[in-house]
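Running this now, will post back.
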Amino acid sequence: MPKNKSASNIYDRIFRENAKNAFIALIQELYQLNIKSFQVLDPKFPSTSENEVDYLYEVVLTDGNKQILHIEFQSTNDTNMLARMQEYHAKIFKKYKLPIKPIVVNLSKKPFAAASKLKADEVFYGYDTIELFNLDTNRLLSSQIPEVVILAILSNYPKKKLETVLRAIVIKLKQLVIAEKDMNRFVKQLFYLSRLRKFEKETKEKLEDMLIEIDMEKDYYYQEGIEKGIEKGRKQGFSLGAEIIVRYKKGNSAETIAQNLNINLKEVQEVIDFFNKA
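Update: finished.
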């Protein structure tokens, strides 16, 4: 993902928009899950917890291994104690990366009746990984879901096959997508996703060869390129830098711009380079 927050938001938005149709279907197929229905839950959690850990100790055992001793003191039967200890466990492990021995000390005169063990299906043992770059391209292209089809751009094929894959994606999208605005949205997402494989330039060229236009006016990188080009132009005069970019966007070469504006070719190329690099 791009380090810049504004740029990474593009990918967050794409995958949020497509998660329901693309990844639920993909996961159901890959893991043979018979999903009858689902509902979207709020993924946001409180940034802080009211509950603080009572005591933590790092101990060294006789065999030389280290572990964390986590002790909680309770004077009442808290029905949420197991969930709390699970939350503590995740936070402690994230910070110290050591095995944890959790213990609750009951301070009351009544036996501690709250659950103290997780059920087998409640225990976190790890997670599965879906490697998009290892998925079969034809398998994704055979999907009847547009959001799954565009993932083929990230799948397992050699770069020399890019044009073939792009053409197949567009043909399949045209079969599946009726509304023009939806088609435009998927094509733009396709272009953004190609950046994750660092061949957005080739993707844009191939799409244009297929007479498919991409509206880049609101694109983050496009706007950043203009801003950087103009900033570079300020050193030569704001209006001159802006003029170079305007002429370049219209298709004029650096040599033509330098000749028409009667300025040094190197200065023109520097402004254009800032624009293209973005």
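Residues 5-30 form the longest helix (26 residues). More later if anyone needs it.
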